[in-house]
TrEMBL record:
One Pfam family from the record: NUDIX
Domain of life: Bacteria
InterPro entries: NUDIX_hydrolase-like_dom_sf, NUDIX_hydrolase_CS, NUDIX_hydrolase_dom
Keywords in alphabetical order: Hydrolase
Naturally occurring in which organism (per UniProt): Brevibacterium mcbrellneri ATCC 49030
PROSITE patterns: NUDIX, NUDIX_BOX
Gene expressing this chain: mutT
PANTHER family (UniProt xref): 8-OXO-DGTP DIPHOSPHATASE-RELATED (PTHR43046:SF2), GDP-MANNOSE MANNOSYL HYDROLASE (PTHR43046)
Gene3D superfamilies: Nucleoside Triphosphate Pyrophosphohydrolase
Molecular function, one GO term: hydrolase activity
Nudix hydrolase domain span: 24-156
Protein name: Hydrolase, NUDIX family
Length: 157
C-alpha cells in the first residue's frame, strides 16, 4: 500500500546503483550556505538517519522534475527553517555534482546576501550551527560531505 503522505512526485525512497544504495529516487541535493561573518550552516543529523550523528548540510531527495537548486532550497527550508529563498537572499556561486552510477547528489553552493536565521524545523536535525570555514573539518562529517569539502571550500570564494 502506498503512503498517502508521499505524493506521486515525491522522490522519497531508496535508489540502488552498482555503487550502493542512496536516498532519493530522482537524486538528491543540498544547500551549502556561506555567511562571510559566521561561516557555513551545518546540520547535525539525528542518530536514526543515514550516517546519523554526523554533520553535513541541509539536503535531501529531489521531487520528480525538480531542479537541483529548487530541491536544495526546499530542503534547506524544511530541515533548517531557512526562509523560502526567493533569489534576493542568496547568490548562487556554483553547483557541485557527484554521480554514483546514475544517482546524483548536487551541492548548491551559495553566499548569503543578508543575515539568514536558522531553526530546527523537522525531526531530521539534532542541531544546526554556523561553523567558521576553517573549523568545518574539526566536526565528525558525513563521509560524502567530508570527501567533497576540500572542493566545496574552494568554491566559496
Amino acid at each position: 500500500m502506498s503512503d498517502p503522505q508521499v505524493s506521486r512526485a515525491s522522490g522519497d525512497g531508496w535508489c540502488k546503483t552498482p555503487q550502493g544504495r542512496f536516498w532519493g529516487l530522482f537524486g538528491a541535493a543540498g544547500l551549502l550556505i556561506h555567511d562571510s561573518e559566521r561561516g557555513v550552516l551545518l546540520q547535525h543529523r539525528v542518530s536514526w538517519s543515514a550516517h546519523g550523528g554526523t554533520w553535513g548540510i541541509p539536503g535531501g531527495a529531489k521531487h520528480k522534475g525538480e531542479s537541483d537548486t529548487d530541491a536544495a532550497i526546499r530542503e534547506s527550508h524544511e530541515e533548517a527553517g531557512v526562509p523560502a529563498l526567493d533569489g534576493h537572499d542568496i547568490e548562487i556561486l556554483d553547483l557541485y555534482t557527484v554521480d554514483k552510477s546514475g544517482w546524483t547528489y548536487t551541492t548548491v553552493i551559495c553566499r548569503a546576501l543578508g543575515r539568514l536565521e536558522e531553526s530546527i524545523s523537522d525531526r531530521e536535525s539534532e542541531e544546526l550551527a554556523w561553523v567558521p570555514v576553517d573549523q568545518v573539518e574539526d566536526y565528525p562529517l558525513h563521509p560524502e560531505f567530508a570527501k567533497a569539502w576540500p572542493t566545496l571550500r574552494k568554491s566559496l570564494g
